[in-house]
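To assess whether the prediction recovers the assembly geometry, we first specified each molecular entity separately, as shown.
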Amino acid sequence: MSKKQALDYLLNPSSIAIVGVSKDFTSISGKPLKNLLHHKFTGEIYPVNPKYDEIGGLTCYPSLLDIPGEVDVALIAVSSKRMMQILDQCKEKGVHHLVLFGSGFAEVGEEGAALQKEVLEKAKQSGIHILGPNCVGLLNVKKAIPMGFATSFETVAGFKSGPVGFASQSGAVGFSLFGMAQEENIGFSYVVNTGNQMDIHSIDCIEYMLEDVDTKVVAGYLEGIPDGELLIKLSSVSKENDKPVILLKSGRSELGQQAALSHTASLTGSDETFRAVAKQYGFIIVNDLDDMIDAMKIFSTGKRAKGNRVVTISNSGAAGIVMADYSEELGLEMVQLSERTAQKVKELIPSYGSALNPIDVTAQALKEQHILTETLELLIHDPDVDAIVFQTTFGGELGLKICEKIIEIDAKTTKPIIVTITGTEELTGEGRLALQNAGVPVYATSYKTMVALKHLVDFSLFSTRTKTEELGAYSNGNIGNPAGVWTEVKVKETLSKLGIRVPQGKVFANKEQLQQHKNELKYPVVCKVLSDEILHKTDAGGVKVNIKNGDELAAAYDGIMQAVTAYNPSARIEGVLAEEMIEGDAIELFVGIKDDPQFGSLIVCGLGGIFIEVLKDASIRKAPVNRLEAKEMLMELKGYPLLEGIRGSAKKDINKLIDTLVKVSEFAFHANGKIAEMDINPLWVFEDGYGVAALDGVIVWKEKDRVTQANR
Amino acid sequence: MSKKQALDYLLNPSSIAIVGVSKDFTSISGKPLKNLLHHKFTGEIYPVNPKYDEIGGLTCYPSLLDIPGEVDVALIAVSSKRMMQILDQCKEKGVHHLVLFGSGFAEVGEEGAALQKEVLEKAKQSGIHILGPNCVGLLNVKKAIPMGFATSFETVAGFKSGPVGFASQSGAVGFSLFGMAQEENIGFSYVVNTGNQMDIHSIDCIEYMLEDVDTKVVAGYLEGIPDGELLIKLSSVSKENDKPVILLKSGRSELGQQAALSHTASLTGSDETFRAVAKQYGFIIVNDLDDMIDAMKIFSTGKRAKGNRVVTISNSGAAGIVMADYSEELGLEMVQLSERTAQKVKELIPSYGSALNPIDVTAQALKEQHILTETLELLIHDPDVDAIVFQTTFGGELGLKICEKIIEIDAKTTKPIIVTITGTEELTGEGRLALQNAGVPVYATSYKTMVALKHLVDFSLFSTRTKTEELGAYSNGNIGNPAGVWTEVKVKETLSKLGIRVPQGKVFANKEQLQQHKNELKYPVVCKVLSDEILHKTDAGGVKVNIKNGDELAAAYDGIMQAVTAYNPSARIEGVLAEEMIEGDAIELFVGIKDDPQFGSLIVCGLGGIFIEVLKDASIRKAPVNRLEAKEMLMELKGYPLLEGIRGSAKKDINKLIDTLVKVSEFAFHANGKIAEMDINPLWVFEDGYGVAALDGVIVWKEKDRVTQANR
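The predicted structure of the complete assembly is given in tokenized form:
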């Protein structure tokens, strides 16, 4: 059974056993039963504990094997030491879905990790799927089935069901966030805490929820990325099903990463890589719990923004200024209203208001509410406006009436209307609640509003973006099974096959060869030593430039041999490379491939010199990239203006550079994980129209093969 | 009477007249009376309106002049058109403190601006001080005297008085923020809305509150900076009185700035400059309303942090990871515990917890609360820990008990203890309230907690930092009354007097002089044309380098004259400068002075080349700066690693560079606002020990004086 199917059982059980149940309903092993009773679970509940005959009015069984009926899900609240025995019973009883609450596994060190491995193996053999261990449980919100001991299961208010599915590696963080979101009237479909995620992990849950009909918004709290490839695959499901995936990932700092290791034994990756790749694949990345709740709220509306053109309306000029500030900061466009719309707005509002965006309808709009409603009507019909933000500080009866008007208008349009009400709960609580109940997103500050809107715009644009799936130039290439290290000559051959310009050159294995063929070259040339034991050729005296003829080349050969032998007497020398000396007004970049443990081949590029050495300025994407993505990579670079040409310097061949990025990324993609590292450095980018040239390069293959290497 | 004294009257009136009062208590002119009655103002209230004999049980007077007693403050709710007449009455009655609610002044255009000016003039002549116009009023929280129509004055809960004084240019934003902060149990001394601030402005209010005994924390919401010099002066009051000033400034974006102009007719300055200068002078800058409330809360404790070394304690490993992430991001140090402390913590907590920072006391600490309290006790006595953050997701009875323990421990220490409770209001509300009532800052997310703590640390470090007030090298210099533009030769003379190295050189007014003295020079030299009509000397062919002897110099002279005459035939040529050719391994910087309308002379510096042209990377401070500030300026630069030396390149003479920044800034300071602009570019910084050299420079004085300039 797949993990997806297992999750379906886990979330929709007809019968639940609680193994190791306690009569103490305040304890971890007592709470799961208390919670099921509290929420009136309509299926069968089978408490299991040899110490009792009855708990909470239910028959208590000595062991799983004594239960008369079938058991869909077993909640296991026994010590880790008893796990192997319990697994045997599960197998015998035919229980295939377990939730392990207990700790004492991988999070406590080697012994625990060994036990965890043992448990997992046995479970696999027995066709059993496990959630946990070290987790607080899971929740089907729609059916009100709490399975576990999360504090938020004890709510007296009941659960609010709705479109958000949420998977959290951390139980404490996850269920607290869930509770806070519920208090803001955000409805959920499921919440799952994966804990040590020995079997079912957070990405599995995201996959399940992306395909679940009741879930329209998926959220994940991750400490590590248990399956980067699966996450990437889910990007297209997110897009096809038009369901955003909101991710909060902790363990970003170096110290945070250490803590993550000792906590749930997960490996957190580089935050930079995670953010770059997640953005590339349309995931919404949030920075903290507030941000997560705010994003859940705006996505719960199901509305999308056609673009980033925002109009803000307020009854206070100051608020308009603030919203303009945040829009600029976040990359939203405070769109200039068309003359037609501006004129009509002007006719509606008092003379001391502002008909320009930010629109100030003034406090008068509170009394004459048609001012606001008619302004809103104008904007929802204006095709140049993608989203409308209304901000007010008013509460009380008038404030509530305004909220009711907004709810009416919001129901008539697919255009997002987002409300900021800045004010006390005492004064504005009623209006806020009305909006929340009607599904109109409302925030307490303009900053929160604008950040949430930015998330909505990002996903809306992503979900309508066409990703070119076809692969280009190298798609028929067969790279075979390369191993070891490919140095300059071989890498240049490869690049040349990809259609990337490299200097034309010739390899001479010895002086005789050189003497024989030296006049076949087109001078001037550069001459370089070839040896995979001399990495810094220039330092070793292994490079001579501006060689004008055959005699100079012969002299250069001797000079190089003498220098490198002095530098490293034992180095194995394969010969020298004499190649075309390329000149021109160029900018130096590096383009590389890096193997990432979570996401596979990444393509990385950046400008040379201080940009990389001082500013550490580089762009990262998962390979392959299409032209649009390659362009975005370049535009992210701090040094991008140099490519565009500044202060009279000419524009560089960005077009050809984009081609190069695409080709290298496709090469890496087809290498299918075989590349450990690849580096083209420098890649010269000439003036627009003059292309690029790769002047040096190296590929390190994952497979080590000294023999092949020595023989190549 | 000073504006400070006027504010004292305005905030502490014994008698208040309400001119233009309305019987409609839901209207703007009715609410001020309703609010005074609602909060049971114990002084005299005099409603004024010829239409009524009585309002709300009080005698209503036809005009100010009919009031029997003295009037401390008059709240004016009449149309702007009647203002001049009201002023006459105020003068006659001896009313010296007015609050103008009405709009129709500078915010609506030229006519209104003219009226505002007229009103202000008459008020000044009559010894009258005005708050407003276009404001919603002010509030003395301690005495519960609301003067105006802010919605938050209508609270039924009453006001909570406390240490925070708050001035806001915007009424809507200001009083909403006040209301929200009160709901989080933050106590206030005063809240003042300054509106159009024709007379009393936000910085005046900050000044008043900094000197008020009841106010310990000052906050300001600013749209513009009405008096930059005063704000800077208040920095030392803030420090001496150990009262933080928290500022939220809107109008940061270009569009925001336009909106600010049409809103309250204020001029918002460059956000970059504001942030740099405010930081230099120890103001706490917040980014939105939430951030402001969070800062008010932590500063309300009155506690200070001795440094940035933080320890976090949590009952969840995940939360610790998150806090470590945020610490790193914000520049707080997750301090490594001493072996002694770590050992003791280890003995306290369960084996599966973490005794390393972030400390994980595990859920066990909920049941055995001594684990938490003893850990806290250890940390408050550890001199290497400056602040303690406790995070929990637990609520209910156990959660409340934990909060009570923390309150007990917090009361025993001056070390800040900050709490994060992530959870629903239903579950955690009680604990949260207990902490708030006890003055222990509590936040809903770790991010908010860490940001607030960073503000506390920043102010704590600022308030103990010794600012070198003495001025150095140029303090006896007398710069006289310079005017026009000083070009290269004169600027170099000036820099030389300041002790900044410049190339040794000689000016030749004509060929004859050159022939006569050419052998007095030490070769090689550089030769440059001198003309304030040729700005780009190199482009004009006006520079020759590497001149080795007198003959070459004579030839260079001819070449230059020919080239520049061709370039600009009418240019007035003052001669040529032949100067020492300085060489060495140097980095190019620029150092400049810029006159800022709000803060006076700013010193700006940055690296040349792509750092300024592509990255726009520059540091700004108000002049003068001391050595520490100059060092911080450099360390802020993205290119700073180049000065420290990277990849084997030598460290540069940072010490001498700091000297230079200090000297230039002091020069600007003594110039006392006379400099419009000054630019030293390039300033070469050599290897450590080899100093700096200014290779070119210009000063533009504010006073234009073509005659002086032509004659210099």
